[in-house]
Amino acid sequence: MFDLWDGLPVTVQDMLVALLLLAPAALIGLAVIRGFAPGPLIRAMIGRFFSANVLFVLLIAVSVGLGVGLIAQERGLRHGTAHAADKFDLVVTAPGSELTMMMAAVYLQPTDAPLLDGATYAELAGHENVALAAPLAFGDSYRGAPLVGTIADFARYLSSDRIEGRLWQTSSEAVIGAAVPLQIEDRFTPAHGMTGPHSEEEDEDHDIDLTVVGRLGVTGTPWDRAILVPIETIWEVHGLANGHALAAGDQIGPPFDSEFFPGTPAVIVRSEQLWANYALRSQFTRDKQTMAFFPGEVLARLYSVIGDVRQAMEILSLVSQILVAASVLLGLFILTNQLRRHMALLRALGAPGRFVFAVIWGYATSLLVIGAMLGLAVGAGAAAALSEIVSRQTGIAISAPLGWAEIHLVAGFVSVSVFLALYPAYSVLRSPVATGLRS
Q1: Cβ(356)–Cβ(436) under 8 Å?
Q2: 20 to 30 Å CA-CA from 78: which of 20, 329, 367, 394?
Q3: H/E element holding 330?
Q4: Which residues of 232-270 are buried (b: 16+ CB within 10 A; e: fewer)?
Q5: Rounded to an integer, what distance in angstroms lies between the CA atom of residue 25 and that of residue 33?
Q6: What are phi and psi of 389, to 5 degrees?
Q7: What is the pTM of this model?
Q8: Confidence band (pLDDT; 50, 70, 90) for 37?
């Protein structure tokens, strides 16, 4: 049996799970309505108390929508952060926190970090299994856009060679990310540290003018908001050596001279072979010297924690929805009290008790199911709005369309609510006909 299930396509498995979650609701419905046609009377009841019914439906829709939107957003954030780390196979830094250095090197979050020396970088760059060893240098910005010093090969690799204009040729030229509000041929003066997007103090910080000569293609990562410059530029504006001996003249980019290499907080390493990346990580993970890690592994550990949070969110969301459904059912119970005389009159005219039960149950279930379906639409809208806000704040392209997890959540909610809807129907049915007629 398990082998048969494992052999099914994932989509088929998801569909079957959704059907299994809806099965209790379907079975209850068949048992309650079998042999009757309460639809016209249910529609009349919905129209009779239209305003109250709309309020109940909206309350359920908001509750379901918030739970669905949060779960979809968590999945979208997970996919977006994983995509942002795709180009970062291996990161080599000085020993410290892998999470902190990943946030700095991959997601461009400002941090203070120790530096790798020239000998270490030369060993990395000259390794036979290394196809790319890109040093990074941080610390400056322009109106909220981080200034990152690196080498031209990394800019090509990051953008998959999609570059409008050209790459830098001198230390006074820059290439901007797709979302930086500058144009090719614009000139600007960077500031020390991270300044706000509307700061006017940059001209006082660094005595250097940079010219934009190119724009990278869209990557869907925080690097879309970054300004890339030769790493020599970052070193020079801070009064350091530029990585080259005086005899090298105005050389830009590798090879660097270890003796004149001021240091780098992180090196992005790429190898053509997967096994080579693991070998390099092992080789450059040295006590008190270097630390090498895969951003994907760090994210996986982070996701394991987020996964526990997600499970808690799903449970809390389902519990909150059940509580809302119970409150709505209580409201329906109060509302159906106003229908007791009508239901008693039906019974006095010979309507079977099961028919009255089916009418009240169908009325409550209709509101609950309509609210749940509307909640899916509310959840989709909430997820889209949250994705837009988070994308603007982080620079990570996040998309959070609804998936099977959200459908399963709503399906479970529907089945539980359909079961709870039996109570107001039972309460009306057990009321004596004479009492109902006198009410």
Answers
A1: no
A2: 20
A3: helix 295-337
A4: bbbbbbeeebbbbeeeeeebbbbebbeebbbbbbbbbbb
A5: 12
A6: -65, -50
A7: 0.76
A8: confident
